[in-house]
Amino acid sequence: MDDSETLAATEIGWLQGGNWGAVIAGLAMLHTRGVLATGVGRIRRTGSLPQDAEPLERALYAALYGSVGPRELARQKRVQRALRDVRQSLVERGLVRASSRRVLMPVLLVALPPALLPKLVAAGMVGVTEGLVAVVVIVGIAVWLMPRRTVPGARALATARVRHRGLVERSQLEPVEVGLAVALFGTPALQALMPKFAWDAGLLDGGRSTHHIDSRLESSPWGANTGSFWN
Fold it and tell me: Would you kindly state where each structural domain of the chain is located, as residue ranges?
């Protein structure tokens, strides 16, 4: 059994689109379960959550006090803890790089070698050509470490896309299937499966409650750039 078969919908959402991708997958499942109501870019809960809901779904549902926007909801402490748990699970399975490897190590690898090279050359410890080659190699390693997903993570996501490529075109999907479709295919899946909910909840532009569909939304699975928080 490969990784793509054992990942939850919200985990695939995180692999595809970071925190925002996981949140949208969770909200899509909650909507399909019939426990969300919307209005003017805001969401409120209605009904009872079933026992088979994923942990992030439970956190989103529990954090819905009154009527709130999706961006505000995603920033609630309870939801943030659940998102960290999703990410940690992916890190432990080798599908996502730990923050220290993704951010700190690349910064150090990019900044330190160019700063040290002139001193090493001046001290005669390394030649200019050899030093430049070493810097290029090290910077290349830093760039390789920067992507959020590891090679196995990217492979699992690609496999899941192939396995579930027909979900958006099917009818009568189960909540988890809806979550998978939205996690994998983002805004186009929202527009195909739940256009009114996505529109009313303000989900089509990264959580901002504008009621128009910008042509830029088609440029990526999750639409416009939503800032560093969502990564």
Answer: 3-96+149-230, 99-145
